[in-house]
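Worked example (supplementary).
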Amino acid sequence: MSNNSSSTDHLSNLIQSRNTSLGLNLPSRQAITVPSNLKSEVVIIPATSQPNFGSYFIFDVKERNCIISDLVLNFNVSAIGGLTGSVTNYPNFSPAVFWTTKIELVVNNVTIDTLYPASNFIAQQFFNEDEDRVLINDAEGSYASLAQRNTMATTSGQNYYVKLRTFYNECHIPILTDSHNLQIRIYMDQLANIVNQSTLTGTPTATINYANVIVKVLKIPSDVATNRLNLMMKKPEQNFYHNLRYSPFAIQSGVTQTTVVLTPFVGNIAALFFVVRPTTGLTQNNIYQFTAISNFAILDSTSSNCVGGQPIPSNLALYYLNLFYSKSSYTSENATGSNLAGTVINNYSNVYAWAFSSNICEALSHGLLLGHRKFLGNEQLQITFTSSLASAVQVDVFAYCQSVFEQGSSYVKCMAL
Amino acid sequence: MLKTLIHLDSIDGIHNYDTILKSYHCYNTNININKPIRNIKEISLKSLEMPIFFNNIRSPNRSNLFNFTFSNSALGFYNISISVTIPEFNYNNINTLLSALNNSISSAIITYHGVTFILSVTNTYYITINTNCNIIILNDSILMNYILGFVSNTYSIGVLSNLIITTTNFYCLNIDNYIILYITNLNSGSDTNVNGRLLTFKIPLNTITGNILYIGDSNTFNQTISITDPYYILSSLNLMILDRFGFPINGGNANFSFTLGITYDKQPNIIKYK
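After joint prediction of all chains, the assembly is encoded as:
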């Protein structure tokens, strides 16, 4: 796993000075001063309102004196019913990350970030190493295994866990007062859109028994929290984070090349991700099957190429650029890619990205500003498809925009850079 | 704060593929806005004009579904599940609706010789099921609960006499009191959502099928939502018209138009950083 320590750590101690501030003669790397009663906890918070498919519900995170570092959604659902017949590996649910239409993270009634199913899925696959992806995907129903999802979908009271990538992963924001409370608004998709029934007949039924948000927190001692709140009254705290922007673009059939104006993207963009899917394939198991393109380019307001100088071929993006933009080998899972065993497994992982940041994985992990391009809303994304489109497609573009989260003792604010 | 009006017509939009209805129609449309608006604080529904033509019994919300389980121990039938659908139609007479329902049920139970199950009107406003089954389980559906007025439950009686189940509520053929205008890409329209329903603006239906609905902003019914996302840019509107239960309605090509009032801030919420 990724948290293995290096076997050469001890070598650096030979030349590093030692630290005696804690009353012990310690190597510098061990001399970290933390309050003695700091506690790392996992809190399971039930939904405030009843969760149902095709509607919305909320979680209210009212933990006090803590720092949130990770969020995971938990759905407990009944088995799929209402279908007759027998088809191997059916019925099954789509991976649980696709059960929502969007998720809003709201602090003090200000929407700090909005997450979308495809952006969540891409973040899970891009910003986790392969070994970690196995656990993350299995917990939500793996996109790569109909059999696993069928087993889960036919088990009553099955738990699904969806790991979210949020601004809490980037910046360690404390919850010290009611004004810092987090509300998570979950917009659920219709059940018909997430159940895959193949040729089974009937109308599927399933209910969400309950939902939780699992919050990894660091509990701050009350004296430390009071002190920090007092400081916050005098001077608000700021944190950098990357705000997710999203826009879908509909492309009619019959075209080989299209250029969409990226009007909704204004600000310092660290990275752009986009996927192409047929407009008739935005649900069920089609939802994570992304169409391959021939090449793409990002153009400025004068229609000059501002990335690479030439259109970027699909394979260059999937196999080389994603080496820098992703921690995993996810984008090798397409029609022409092979895994370590030399086996071609086509999971339609055609996710294209361009980062203006020098290290987008690091930037999104720690809220670092490592490069950007200032978008004015007149930049364009030019896509050349592999052939003339037989049917209409939707291009979903996601952008990470450098932003500042400002937190005072009684308010929060987010601003674009 | 600045205010502006934008007039929108679904005829100018691109129809989305409705994954539930498996078709393209104007009640699921994306309309692009030529001049994107930033720093939006509030959005109000100022007026709406819409032809009303849809049926009160529709398949998308399964209001055409009648679902029950019966046992007739005298005839040797136990826990037989029956699920019937009736044709989509604007049923404006209860007897027409019950006739369609009785026809479907009798076709479905024909293989269970000797079993009877008849629905009829009683005391003008109530519906009665008359059956020779000794146990009937009525399952939830919009038709069962909201239109006919039955309470979903298990009903039973001795073997030698007929079972009669009478609704405890009035039947109601016009259950579409209002429909929902849901703008899917607003952050956030959730301020006015109630009971988890996806709802941006509520459109009261004060006319019947075949007429054109017009509603205007009024002092007594002003609908405004606040936008809590400071980054939100209104460059397109993704519209869905849903029924009161949150299910899609097939709008066909019966295009509609409406006007939104936008309150926005001139100053962009952007800071300088070196």
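Two points are worth noting when inspecting this output. The mean pLDDT of chain B is 88. Residues 94-108 of chain B form the longest helix (15 residues).
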